[in-house]
Amino acid sequence: MSNVKHLETNVQRVLTIVLREDVKEDLGFLTVTDVKITNELSYMYVYYTVFGDAKQLEKTQHALDRANGFIKNQIAHKVKMRKVPELIFKYDESYAKGQRIDNLINKIK
Asked: How far apart are the first and last CA of the chain?
């Protein structure tokens, strides 16, 4: 289990660099918040947030989908993985949920 956690940390670090320096797509102001890899190394879930509106989010998701193969290839080379799990990008809604809760609390005050 700790090997998977270590791998997740390494992948998140490398993925951040790849997205910032190597991907030529316009990703907007993207932040990788977490990486989760299944125990059998079949799937790698990358959670991210984007600064902007729904249109920017859609644009970023489309750009990530187009660059998926390139990103997966870069991870394989830089992390030295024999088998790279299927890469799945998911929008992390925790920040938006936190903002809604904060707004509700502020309305009550």
From this structure: 44
Q: Rounded to whole angstroms, how far apart are CA atoms 33 and 92?
A: 7
Query: Which residue type occupies 59?
Result: K
> Residue 29 belongs to a domain with what CATH number?
3.30.300.20
- pLDDT exceeds 90 at position 80: no
Domain count within the chain = 1
Tell me, what amino acid is at 2? S
CA distances from 6 to 34, 54, 76, 98 (A): 13, 33, 15, 28
CA–CA gap between residue 21 and residue 84 (Å, rounded): 20
Over residues 22-43, the pLDDT tens digits come to 888 788 889 999 999 998 889 9
Name the residue range of residue 49's domain. Answer: 2-108
